[in-house]
Records
---
Amino acid sequence: MKRSAKRPYHHGDLAAALVDTAVELIAERGVAGFSMAEASRRLGVTVAAPYRHFADRDALLAAVAAKAATDLTAAVAVEASAVPEPTDRIAAAARGYVRFASANAALFQALFAAGLDKRARPELEEAARPLVEDFFHGPATSLFDGDEQAGEALALAVLATAHGHAMLLLDGAFGPDTDAVGQAMARAHAAALGLVSGREALRSADLPTKVAGK
Amino acid sequence: MKRSAKRPYHHGDLAAALVDTAVELIAERGVAGFSMAEASRRLGVTVAAPYRHFADRDALLAAVAAKAATDLTAAVAVEASAVPEPTDRIAAAARGYVRFASANAALFQALFAAGLDKRARPELEEAARPLVEDFFHGPATSLFDGDEQAGEALALAVLATAHGHAMLLLDGAFGPDTDAVGQAMARAHAAALGLVSGREALRSADLPTKVAGK
DNA sequence: GTCTATATCCCGATAGAC
DNA sequence: GTCTATCGGGATATAGAC
């Protein structure tokens, strides 16, 4: 796995190369095991070079998280965009969400387990908006005949369910079986269908209203 | 849970004190910001002392995670054990799960965001077994008239849903509103009710059989 | 069981040359 | 935009005294 043999980056796109290498490192050692120094070493540049492109370690991690958000959106789109029927669409999105988390664990962890302050990085939420709108909120709202608030409740419920399955899968809660991934995807899919089927419980739920004080 | 005395630890229970201090540190700086050195400093012992009680940093973190598992179980019990009706019981458990995650974020993160290898620490799963059995698997199975496999599917779906809501809440996905906690709890509760209501979608789903709880 | 002392290592980040 | 050189800091973990 030597990369030092050739030097494709010295006069190339170091910023992008750093993001790629960060993903590699996170995959190998986890988010905590990632460091600017090690990434520099792998790319054959000195430890000072990355700071021309990223203000600090967190900035590079945020760039990785941003890539994760767009890649996740694209992956779910591949799985669900061809499915027009709302119930199947949102269920396919849930399954695709879990699939991406497993197939791109490093990216997923950069987005959700890097300890990044999302409130300070609204661009991440922005990057994930099409995902939420097109594959969760949209179908959910049409399942409620256009009721926006009920649709949002269902969308968030399915999203949280997919997220929970993804996190538990990465945590090993589905066991060491080789098909733990397939199992988690099937369970997330079925749970989404169940939520759709029982969606009336979400419509009437008295949730704290969206905005009270501003 | 007292730390009143000035120096209760020098000849007291350093192991337990280290766990408490680790929780404090994680609450203040996150899991990544926790170190044996800083914990030692706070307790007024030298950096060598903790190694008489924990083999390494990960061992101390695992002890914190174990406490988290038992505390989580106890907290859910407080919220759901008095509720006999299966549907309300499992929904109360989901809500209690989210409440605990918010009220004890440091413990929850030690359990789920510390990067501990769960497969290498089966005692954590063991500690959470009563939680899964009594408040998820039990009621879910009775909702399926004793069908164990269908019950497990519903239990895992509700558990994953609660987990997803908890993780998203800690990630700030429910916004900076002061009642984000109450909202997340209400949503998890409603989603659990929805899953119960639409549980037929889970019974028929062809899922691989074996599963590890939690 | 705790302390003193220390070995060893790695990291983030910067200044200034080229 | 990258390199050289480096500062300053903090971490894990161990050896041996008490």
Note: The radius of gyration of chain B is 19 Å.
---
Amino acid sequence: MQRPFSDVLDRLRGKGLRPTRQRLALAKLLLERGDIHVTAEELHGMATKEGIRVSLATVYNTLHQFTDAGLLREIVVEPGCSYFDTNVSDHHHFFYEDSARLADIVGADVSIARLPEPPAGMHVQRVDVVIRLSANRKG
Amino acid sequence: MQRPFSDVLDRLRGKGLRPTRQRLALAKLLLERGDIHVTAEELHGMATKEGIRVSLATVYNTLHQFTDAGLLREIVVEPGCSYFDTNVSDHHHFFYEDSARLADIVGADVSIARLPEPPAGMHVQRVDVVIRLSANRKG
DNA sequence: GTGATTGCAAATCTTTTGCACTAAA
DNA sequence: TTTAGTGCAAAAGATTTGCAATCAC
């Protein structure tokens, strides 16, 4: 599952994104560690922790460039904060309301039996399913 | 479907919300005109247009009080802006990405065939399905 | 070199909050 | 009266943008 460094570089190049120091470092953080969901703030924190110097503005810009390039998927489940998902395949999410965490649902575990016809002149861009979870009351 | 004024008043009272001039006016705007989806800014605009003087801060507070009381449902589909839905029954949404509009999907038109088991100690609070639509390319 | 990218700080946008004032019960 | 609710302006977050400095090619 782990891809070699040169692959990240190629993936950026393949999308027409110049592989700058910052983009490479962020791409490695994001794409070489399985499926994760991060906010811009969190990714900035991860970078800082690893000694990568990058501004928060660049993190935001980079996340959106990666999203536009199809390397990430943006998910909004709560007001005031976007998550970015490194899993860009067709899948849905659990959202833990108590901890504000997202988790992927294995594709086959949710299936939509019937989809309504999209209105005339429209086509379906994407279907998002979010299952919101709370902790059971103790006792 | 249209309920009389006194009913709005009773609904507020029933929820323990003191029926102030502002709350009554906003409740009438929201609850006496079928199913709608509004942002705080839009509702404030609607109120202003009808000559109802109410501050944007009060609109925000009121929307959240109504949501907590179960009179509205909050929906987030894009970063930086919440919608409030007057339809609080179980249903899902179309989201028109081009115009940033929401529309209800009739309940029976979407059905989820299989739901994954919620993780241990968790229960499902709500399932949100958003079908994102774009206009077809002309030509 | 040259144009794309970055960093910073300032700007923007949505939403929340503190607090004196007003109104409902 | 007494307490909840309102308005305003200021604060708080998340995100974006302008622009000079820097980097990839």
Note: Residues 18-21, 39-41, 56-57, 60-61, 80-82 of chain B lie near DNA strand C (CB under 10 Å from a C1').
